[in-house]
Structure formats: C-alpha cells, structure tokens
Specification:
- By secondary structure, this protein is α/β, with parallel strands linked by helices.
- The protein has helices at about 50-60, 70-85, 120-125, 165-175, 195-210, 220-230, 250-260, 275-290, 335, 340-345; strands spanning about 25-30, 90-95, 110-120, 135-140, 150-160, 180-190, 235-250, 295-310.
- Strand 5, helix 4 (about 165-175) and strand 6 (about 180-190) form a beta-alpha-beta unit.
- Helix 4 packs across helix 6.
- Belongs to the methyltransferase superfamily.
Amino acid sequence: MLRPAGLWPLCRRPWAARVSAENPGRREITSGVSPRGSTSLRALNIFDRDLKRKQKNWAARQPEPTKFDYLKEEVGSRIADRVYDIPRAFPLALDLGCGRGYIAQYLNKETIGKLFQVDIAENALKNSLETEIPTVSVLADEEFLPFRENTFDLVVSSLSLHWVNDLPRALEQIHYILKPDGVFIGAMFGGDTLYELRCSLQLAETEREGGFSPHISPFTAVNDLGHLLGRAGFNTLTVDTDEIQVNYPGMFELMEDLQGMGESNCSWNRKALLHRDTMLAAAAVYREMYRNEDGSVPATYQIYYMIGWKYHESQARPAERGSATVSFGELGKINNLMPQGKKSQ
C-alpha cells in the first residue's frame, strides 16, 4: 500500500519533423509536437489535449513536484521490472508520455543504450529526474509520433495513454516505430480507477442538484485492450491487471494530489464547477461509505499492464492447425502415453 504525499497509413507520417536516432548524447531536446487541437479524423474527440498539456505543465512547475510522484514512481518501477524480465539489452528505447522520467530512473545503461523521452509537457521534460542512460527529450504528442519506421528496440509507456483520443492509432504508431522483434511494455489506468470518488460525487450531485455530470474521465476496459493490441499488429500478447490502494485523510486531499499529478479531468463534457454544498456532501458520502478503521479513506487505482511484440521470423509460432498428435480426450491417459523411462523419473 502506498502512502499519499483510424488506421494510420504507413506511407504517410504526421506533419511534425521526424526525429533521427543518430548522434547519441547525454541530453538533447528537440520538438515534434502536433498542432494545437489536432486529433485523428476518425477518433472521437473525448479529451481536450491542450488542457491536458496545461495541467501537466502546471503540475511540473510546482515547488515540490516529488510530493505527488508516489503513484507514478511505483508504476514506473513495475514497468522497469518487466523490462528486466526480458533477457536482452535494448540499444535504442522510447519512453512515451514519460512525464518527469518515472521509468527511466529505474533503468540502467547495461540494459538501455540510449533513451528517447517523449511528452506533451515541456516543463516535465525540463524537470526530468536524473538517469545514467544517455537521454534525448522530445516534445511531441502521443497521437502524432515523429519517428521513422523500425526505429526502436523497445517502447515503454506508463500512465499516459488513457488521455489519448485515438488509442487504436496510438498503438498502431507504436507498432510502426518498433523494429521487428521489438517489444512494447505499457501501463494505463483501468475502468475501476477511483470508483470510490466517482460514486461519491454522483450520489452527492444527484441528491443536491437533481442529476450528475462526469467528473472522472472514461477508461478502457481490459477485455478491449488485447483486441486493440492485436489489431495494431502486435503478437505474443500479455495483458494483466493490478490494483494499488492509497489511503488519504479525506476526499479533498485526494483531489489535491490528483491535481498535483496532472491527472485532473480534461474531458470536453466535464462540468466546469461543482457547488460548495455538493463537494461537502460528496466528502461526507465518501467518508461514510469507504472509511477505514483509522479514519482515512481509500482510493483505488486499477492498472492495466500490457506487453506486445512486433513480428519477426525468429519468434516462436503456434503449430499448424491439425498437427497435434494427441487429442484432448486422451489427456486422462497421459501416464500411459509417456515413455516408461520418463514416468520413473
């Protein structure tokens, strides 16, 4: 438990300048940010990306940004653990939606040769955490990646893709920039994230104002994630879910931390203002329904972790249909089918 503190055509690329992976250095900064207000023509325009950029820039400018980094650092460390589980080195890697470098701080130069860090918030890039890996900072939108095909050996992303309007295209672009046999390892918030806060606000607003508006952004369902990865071209997929529960003194402290993380709602249909009486009622509902024995209130963050590989002929492939020599009906006789020497071992 933590403590609080549309198909993207491969023959075309976004208008933003393409970023080369040559000439490694300790830290370089370049820009490939998309036009303001841009979004895919096929995408539902759910999130205000300009507002999200401002929210993340504001959070990165705070006097003590590390006060609010506890959740992103925890998930970043878990992404790094998954990188270390793969017994190989990655000469060129990309951290998509890096923030202040929550994954990079847990990686080492023996595993990663050079790391590109991409984010829409320039202040997050300027105030990124120290790492021993040679790093290039790129100001760019996750929806408009300015990289060439078959560039990276590894792409990682932690708690960023849930703010993307066109998640299918974002995954397709990640697949596009990966080299064959390259791997994508990501994490994003799941549908049950902050269900306590969502329920409390809805009950209070319904009682005080006769109806409710969305105050928590929509999230992807876990059963859709594997399908989206497969449709983007990834194979050998792994999708798993985890929950992190953080205890806060009250609802207002939780909302303050969400703002400090840059995770305030940026949906276009959000309600601009909640009445003071509604907020007080929501805090009371939250405490009444979910209070812990020590008087604190819990907030649940559901995290989806995903791993997908870009196809290469050297990868193991499933056997051809109909090539099995034993049927499922004979599994009960497995001991009789095994050679005598193996049974005695």
